[in-house]
């Protein structure tokens, strides 16, 4: 019996110096959340303020994965920075919607849309161009 039936793969790229794009593949659950958290903590340590989480290859996410997303969201907002979820699978999107995470953390359909939200300074779920300017 294999120990890691659903291994997690996290590929980190830097679209910009302060933006980390993490493409996650595999189940994001109690068995893999710590590994995911380490990747995020490493990027925070290296000065990244904005996190784009590509969840298009995550077929399943439990409360452990959601807690990591919410924790990095809180940490990023204090910098100030942001977290954006990109293209979650239908099952993950359903969990995000049912738990209200998608109300707090913006969900984009593409990397370009998420980067546009970073450029616009959006940290909430409103669509680009609809948020009020900070005064």
Give the structure's gist in a few sentences.
The protein has 135 residues and is an alpha/beta fold. The chain has helices at 33-45, 63-78, 90-99, 101-104, 111-119; strands at residues 9-16, 19-25, 50-57, 82-86, 107-108. The protein has a 5-stranded mixed β-sheet with strand order 1-2-3-4-5.
What does this structure look like?
The protein has 135 residues and is an alpha/beta fold. It has one domain: STAS domain (Transcription Regulator spoIIAA), CATH 3.30.750. The protein is built from 5 helices and 5 strands, in the order ββαβαβααβα. It has a 5-stranded mixed sheet with strand order 1-2-3-4-5. α1 (33-45) runs parallel beside α2 (63-78). It starts with 8 loop residues before the first strand and ends in a 16-residue tail after the last helix. GO terms for molecular function: anti-sigma factor antagonist activity. Residues 17-118 form the STAS domain. This is Anti-sigma factor antagonist.
List the main descriptive attributes of the protein structure presented here.
135 residues, five-stranded mixed sheet, STAS_dom, alpha/beta, 39% helix, single chain, Transcription Regulator spoIIAA, Anti-sigma factor antagonist, STAS_dom_sf, 5 strands
